[in-house]
Amino acid sequence: MSKEKAFEQEFENKIENEIKIEPRDWMPEKYRENLIRQISQHAHSEVVGMLPEANWITRAPSLRRKVALLAKVQDEAGHGLYLYSATETLGARREDTVDDLHEGRAKYSNIFNYPSVTWADIGVIGWLVDGAAIQNQVMLTRTSYGPYSRAMVRICKEESFHQRQGYEIVLHMAKGTPEQKEMAQDALNRWWWPSLMMFGPSDKDSKHSQQSLAWKIKRQGNDELRQEFIDKTVPQAKYAGLTIPDPDLKWNEEKGVHDFGEIDWSEFMNVIKGNGPMNRSRIKARKAAKENGAWVREAATAYHEKKMKRAQQKQSAA
Ligand code: FAQ
What we know:
By secondary structure, this protein is mainly α. It contains 13 helices and two strands. The chain has helices at residues 3-16, 29-48, 50-54, 63-88, 94-102, 119-137, 146-174, 178-197, 209-214, 222-240, 265-275, 279-292, 294-317, and strands spanning 250-252, 257-259. A two-stranded antiparallel ribbon has the order 1-2. Helix 6 runs antiparallel to helix 10. The longest helix has 29 residues, at 146-174. It is globular and about 75 Å long. The site of Phenylacetyl coenzyme A has 30 residues, from helix 2, helix 6 and helix 9.
């Protein structure tokens, strides 16, 4: 058996036996590339995802709400950092990954290209967007690549807190004044369908799913996760007294799941191609953050270099 074949066999055995692939292990080039694609796009989603919520930090209706929102937005930054670090363990350079986002070569979640226009949107983002993120990411704690799987364990714990804080805002508004309830319903109307799109295209149109499932990068298909999310969320909407904006939504007694209406995939394609309501504004904000933070990176590099030089001098003097 050639050396390459033996490595391949060992890799396949590990996948088969649920043994994590670690950064120094041999892996097929396509496995590495697919992971960098998925993890970096996930990282970009976390970082771009800070923007619609950050929009409301200064206008949060109470100190308690402000503290929770601040903590949530900071958590998302942390998630982005763990995930960028995970791509670095695969040989990607952070500068290149970030440039890919800024130059439109990399995608990020469709959902963050919609505006957050009222306070109720912050509740609905936590409830639905973090809810969908958890639904998708719990399976990723069992992904075959070690650093990604370990990052996902912590991320999921934090996302659960985010989902709770969002649903609490929604409940509060839905049980509040008629105006507040109307705001909550309006936010649900606008975020429902884009949230369902977060799970990606239908399995039959998903170009990466088959291989990603075989390599256990993904552990469940897009449609299965979407269905589970709908089945969990419908009773939550009912409990809040809100209506899911889908006239075709109904319980299917035979299958034990909810049937739901047609998703507008042309809207999804349009948004992920860069033509959603907020795409340009989101990338502009990320580019500005990079430019405005240049002095911090320079100062940190200068400090690090000075520290290294001192350590070297000390070592050669000893
Ligand atoms: N948006 O073949 P598939 C969050 C692209 S984190 C944009 O099915 P795959 C936290 C896909 O990249 C949310 N593009 O792809 C938070 C591919 O294009 P490519 C992000 C999408 O990878 C909450 C093409 O379509 N979560 O919300 C989307 O097997 C609140 C074909 O699709 C993750 O990234 C989409 N929704 O399955 C932060 C989780 N869906 O790359 C702040 C990890 C698909 O060939 C506030 N990622 N595309 O050019 C995954 O699990 C997978 O990547 C999927 C897509 C399931 C998203």
